[in-house]
Amino acid sequence: MAAHPLDPNRLRRTLLKGAASAALAAPAWPLLAQQKRPGRKTDTVRVGYGRGGLPLIAKQRGEFEKTLAAQGIKVQWVGPFPNHAPSLQAVTGGSADFGFWGSSTPALAAIIAGSPLVFTQFATYEPRSTAIIVKPDAGIHRIEDLVGKSVAVNRSGLGEFLLVAALEKHGIARDKVRFVYLNPPDAAPAFTQGKVDAWSMWSPQVDIAREATQARDIFLEGRDLSFLIDFSSLLTTRQFAQDNPALVRAVIDAYAQDAAWINGNTLAAQTLAQKEGGYADTVRDKLVDYRQQWDFHEVDDAAFLDKFQFAADWLSERKILTQAIKVRDHLVRV
């Protein structure tokens, strides 16, 4: 499958903005340290990252930091985080300025709980590789076989939502299956040791588990689910966005450049991610075979926001989110 770039019009817009900001950068860092740029109150940005995905590859590649350095912005990486919820806690707790392009579902849950988070940008990628997996000797061959069984999921996250969607598609009541709420570092050994019967998980952890246990998919998001309920999202606090709109824009634009590079350099990108994950070449090659392509969505993209609102409603109606939320109230356009 040939690689495809990001939407050219959207990418051109974001890159031109980034180039314009870079052109204004003064040549001497000491001068920048003495005088903040218009549109930002700080020249240092603390960025979260995990063990896979766009931020990790941006960190390993190094161009993200160079792009922002050209605008007088210093990058501090915070992490790695096992999943999005602790990344968001770091933002609200003041130890990071941005999360790590994680799942929009725990972000919505945090906002409902009172966190002053706002969405600054969204991304989608295809194909989707999140899956519900079982080991060969589990006696589970289809979703219906999960009745009476236990499944590890992350609470209010992509793992839980995928299991709910799978059960609903196959007409199985949720109370017929035991949801075991575990974060990925705890879920992996629980699944490997047979303490749970199945695991609902995203890449690369689900691919690592397949390799280690010869597990198989009984539900694959990109194959078995016809709609998106969860999106990659970049969040900060409302105050940080209001104080630093130019910096927020610069971070978004730098990420857009890395996403475009990933789309055209799948093997190189996954090799960078492999350095952090420490997994086998066979796992890396599986990830390369996905040929995942990133596409960015601005927070004023009305068509995208309609899809996001549908997702939020779907989640609240099924009690994955504790209450309904109007997503347009929690966006910042820069």
From TrEMBL:
CDD domains: PBP2_NrtA_SsuA_CpmA_like
Residues in Solute-binding protein family 3/N-terminal domain copies: 44-280
Xref: PROSITE patterns: TAT
Cited InterPro entries: Solute-binding_3/MltF_N, SsuA/THI5, TAT_signal
Pfam families associated with the record: NMT1 (PF09084)
Similarity-based family: Belongs to the bacterial solute-binding protein SsuA/TauA family.
The name this protein goes by in its record: Alkanesulfonates-binding protein
